[in-house]
């Protein structure tokens, strides 16, 4: 008799868990629980352009104009195409950027599109990282300008490339600078068990010439 009573309890518990998984929002607490998060695809991609708007296409599908946030994406490789909206659109080249999305993370493309294909800003995305301790994540930073200086919360870290630097899980302000180029400053979040990949682009500082009045 005890076995017969146990069966309905197991069935009810299974149904209750199924309902819970189905109705809880994907960005809720359940997505952080190790057992339950396997049922979620709380994967987000944010696309932002600085100083102007751009048309956004992701894996060939159009998503309108920036800023764009796409939720509940499947993990994997994505191709982001940006076309700056301007009266002189021929002045700006269409940009193609690659992002790899990891389950239950938020990736971000934050870019300013300049003339002649020049970019300024950053692409941020996460990758799973093994063999990390409690409250540990890692950071990798690449720059289009070789040997750019990296600062975290105003303190010098090292020059690029930075590969899998272990850090405490929290928010930081990342600064990437190089002589003759405009500095990139962005907030970043180091997550438990993940590697944060950051690829940065720096605008060259325009050269100015002083005019001499001989009159």
TrEMBL record:
<feature type="domain" description="PEGA">
    <location>
        <begin position="137"/>
        <end position="200"/>
    </location>
</feature>
<protein>
    <submittedName>
        <fullName>WD40-domain containing protein</fullName>
    </submittedName>
</protein>
<dbReference type="InterPro" id="IPR013229">
    <property type="entry name" value="PEGA"/>
</dbReference>
<dbReference type="Pfam" id="PF08308">
    <property type="entry name" value="PEGA"/>
</dbReference>
<feature type="domain" description="PEGA">
    <location>
        <begin position="44"/>
        <end position="113"/>
    </location>
</feature>
């Amino acid at each position: 008799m005890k076995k017969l009573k146990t069966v309905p309890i197991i069935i009810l518990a299974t149904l209750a868990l199924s309902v819970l998984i189905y109705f809880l929002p994907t960005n809720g607490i359940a997505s952080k629980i190790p057992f339950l998060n396997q049922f979620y695809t709380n994967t987000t991609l944010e696309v932002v352009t600085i100083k102007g708007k751009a048309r956004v296409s992701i894996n060939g599908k159009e998503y309108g104009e920036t800023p764009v946030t796409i939720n509940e994406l499947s993990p994997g490789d994505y191709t982001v195409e940006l076309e700056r909206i301007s009266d002189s659109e021929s002045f700006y080249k269409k940009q193609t950027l690659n992002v790899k999305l990891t389950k239950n993370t938020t990736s971000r493309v934050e870019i300013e599109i300049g003339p002649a294909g020049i970019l300024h800003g950053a692409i941020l995305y996460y990758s799973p990282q093994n063999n990390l301790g409690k409250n540990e994540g890692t950071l990798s930073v690449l720059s289009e300008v070789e040997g750019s200086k990296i600062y975290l919360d105003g303190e010098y870290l090292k020059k690029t490339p930075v590969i899998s630097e272990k850090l405490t899980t929290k928010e930081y302000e990342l600064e990437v600078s190089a002589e003759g180029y405009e500095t990139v400053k962005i907030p970043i979040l180091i997550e438990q068990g993940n590697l944060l990949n950051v690829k940065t682009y720096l605008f060259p500082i325009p050269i100015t010439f002083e005019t001499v009045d001989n009159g």
